[in-house]
């Protein structure tokens, strides 16, 4: 399929960070609102916000988020940001998207955790109305913060569950903060009935995938290190966990050093549930369409398999059962029309 056909395919996306996915246009608007100077040329702005040269690891990748953090400190900014990402997603026929952000990173100017969450949900609702897309928010705890801070963020999320919020996640420095360190906050999320996805297996640490599922995650962000411990596939399968694949991001952070290591065949042969995602449209300089194109190029992924990835994503989504049923029907019909 050519890029235009791939772009038109209906898609779901479960793993997309708000702060890593702002269009350059939105970054300019937000910078103006915050009275923060930005370079005039898009090329120079891209250099500040996108991974361009080869980097060594996830730590260097995460440095690229520093530039936008000061731009996301007001309700208006958070709302605009959420709207902007929905606009980009809708333009490539994403019909359902979960967008995640860390409330702890938007407190510099006095917003409360709850206010940051409400503002992002506001922007998502506005985007849904404008673009006919469905969405939910995920609140990220950050691994490098202490459990009290992460529990506070999750506590602020609770009132929004099923009201624009789908669940919670842990992002950040996985190499130094394994799942065991997050146990109290994860336990809190579980007692509150917050659905849980966890970044895991992004730092050559396959054991973190096992540990995360063991602690209650029904979805795994990345899961790339599966290739280093293939026997984990049976455990992932037995627990019906869904892998949120982010190929470009994984190549950039050296979660895989080359495409041959990527566990695509393992996922397909074991019929693991998995879906395709951008992780960060801006930081990774990608789109969901480009991700589909990469899967097609490297793995000869067919339309039938793209449909299966989407059906897996829908099944694993943190949204209402009625919406899942509706999306499932729509996706099957749309992909059938292709063949
Ligand atoms: O692939 C990733 N792995 C781990 N952490 C990430 C990744 N992408 C983004 N973030 C982190 O999540 C925060 C909230 O969106 C971002 O600020 C970034 O620090
Ligand atoms: Zn991520």
TrEMBL record:
Binds 1 zinc ion per subunit. One of its GO terms (cellular component) is cytosol. Gene3D superfamilies: Metal-dependent hydrolases. Zn(2+) binds at residues 15, 17, 199, 279. The keyword Hydrolase applies. Pfam families: A_deaminase. This is Adenosine deaminase. It comes from Agrilactobacillus composti DSM 18527 = JCM 14202.
């Amino acid at each position: 399929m050519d890029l235009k056909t791939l772009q038109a395919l209906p898609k779901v996306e479960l793993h997309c960070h708000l702060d890593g996915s702002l269009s350059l246009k939105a970054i300019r608007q937000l910078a103006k609102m915050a009275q923060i100077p930005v370079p005039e040329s898009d090329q120079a702005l891209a250099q500040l916000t996108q991974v361009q040269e080869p980097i060594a690891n996830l730590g260097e990748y995460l440095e690229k988020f520093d530039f936008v953090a000061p731009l996301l400190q007001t309700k208006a900014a958070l709302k605009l940001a959420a709207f902007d990402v929905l606009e980009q997603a809708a333009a490539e026929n994403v019909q359902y998207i979960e967008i995640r952000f860390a409330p702890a990173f938007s407190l510099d100017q006095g917003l409360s955790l709850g206010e940051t969450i409400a503002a992002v949900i506001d922007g998502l609702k506005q985007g849904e109305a404008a673009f006919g897309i469905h969405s939910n928010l995920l609140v990220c705890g950050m691994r490098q913060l202490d459990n009290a801070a992460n529990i506070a963020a999750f506590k602020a999320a609770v009132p929004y569950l099923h009201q624009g919020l789908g669940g919670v996640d842990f992002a950040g420095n996985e190499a130094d903060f394994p799942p065991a360190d997050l146990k109290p906050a994860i336990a809190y999320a579980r007692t509150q009935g917050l659905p849980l996805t966890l970044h895991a297996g992004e730092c050559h640490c396959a054991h973190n995938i096992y540990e995360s599922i063991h602690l209650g995650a029904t979805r795994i962000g990345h899961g790339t290190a599966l290739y280093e411990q293939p026997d984990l596939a049976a455990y992932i399968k037995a627990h019906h966990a869904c892998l949120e694949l982010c190929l470009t991001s994984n190549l950039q952070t050296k979660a895989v050093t080359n495409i041959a290591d990527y566990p695509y065949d393992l996922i397909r042969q074991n019929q693991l549930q998995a879906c395709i995602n951008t992780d960060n449209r801006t930081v990774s300089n990608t789109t969901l369409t480009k991700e589909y194109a990469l899967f097609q190029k490297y793995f000869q992924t067919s339309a039938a398999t793209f449909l299966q990835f989407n059906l897996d994503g829908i099944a694993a989504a943190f949204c209402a059962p009625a919406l899942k049923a509706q999306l499932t029907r729509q996706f099957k019909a749309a992909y059938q029309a292709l063949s």
